[in-house]
Design a protein that fits this description.
Order of helices and strands: HHHHHHHHHHH
Protein name: Golgi phosphoprotein 3 (GPP34)
Structural class: mainly alpha
Distance between the termini: 52 Å
CATH class of the largest domain: Mainly Alpha
Number of strands: 0
CATH topology of the largest domain: Tetracycline Repressor, domain 2
Number of domains: 2
Radius of gyration: 22 Å
Length: 260
């Protein structure tokens, strides 16, 4: 961004409301093109370049911004000139857009939502019901979030892109660390004892793998898989895995246990 400008100027422009607005409009266009399929025909013969991001032209960005401005009391009034002041080439804009889509703040926000959901549960809730409520909240936090869908499309479509690879590594490590801490907190609440040979990161790895699989199936089939018991597949898998991970699950799965 603004490669020819002085460092202080680059920082000022990068942090300006207009720059953020261009990136937010870019995400709206990706939503139109990749989730709602309202963009141009990316398979048309005349459409050259990277198919995944081919619809992000300066003209479409400005046009989409004008549509958004109609609903605002204070329109942003983005122009092609303002775009060119920031990005000389479209490729530089798409690089920044990928970084913006993959920014760590989105994961942090999702984790705060899940922690809030856990803290809002009744103090005497059974472990089984806690697993049900938290699996529902965890799946909803991603399946109902269009940014998660866009992130998934981009990392599947551009697996070797440097910024995508960096995002995946940092995101995954941060996600597992936070889940490990959360599972340890839940275990203390119910007096669960981890079996020898396992770590909390092991627990996070295994439960995350189950949840990821359920998400992918749900996006493809339209719903989370349900078992004959009536529970969704994540709840069923976790309940099946708990005895192998902890020494005393039978005693606490259905009892109402007050926090310790």
């Amino acid at each position: 961004m603004c490669a020819d400008a002085r460092p202080a100027t680059r920082v000022k422009i990068a942090n300006s409301p207009e720059t953020r607005a261009f990136l937010e409009i870019g995400l709206l266009l990706l939503h139109d093109d990749l989730l709602d399929h309202r963009g141009p025909d990316l398979l048309a013969d005349h459409d050259a370049g990277t198919r995944l991001l081919a619809g992000l032209s300066q003209a479409r960005l400005v046009e989409r911004a004008e549509q958004e401005d109609l609903a605002l009391e204070r329109p942003k009034v983005l122009t092609v000139g303002m775009f060119r002041d920031r990005w000389r080439y479209k490729s530089r804009y798409t690089e920044d857009l990928i970084a913006y889509l993959m920014r760590p703040a989105l994961l942090a926000r999702k984790l705060r939502t899940l922690r809030s959901a856990l803290e809002a549960l009744p103090p005497d809730i059974t472990l089984t019901d806690l697993v049900r409520e938290m699996s529902r909240a965890t799946l909803a936090a991603t399946l109902e979030d269009p940014l998660w869908s866009l992130q998934t499309i981009v990392w599947v479509g551009l697996p070797n892109h440097p910024r995508v690879k960096t995002f995946l590594k940092i995101n995954y490590e941060q996600l597992l660390t936070n889940w490990a801490e959360l599972y340890q907190q839940v275990a203390r609440r119910y007096g669960l004892e981890l079996r020898p040979g396992y770590t909390w990161l092991d627990v996070a790895e295994m439960l995350n793998a189950v949840t990821d699989g359920a998400r992918m199936r749900a996006k493809g089939m339209g719903s989370v898989a349900a078992l004959s018991t009536g529970d969704n597949v994540v709840v069923g898998a976790i309940r099946a895995m708990l005895p192998a991970l902890f020494t005393n699950t039978d005693a606490v799965l259905t009892e109402r246990v007050h926090p310790r």
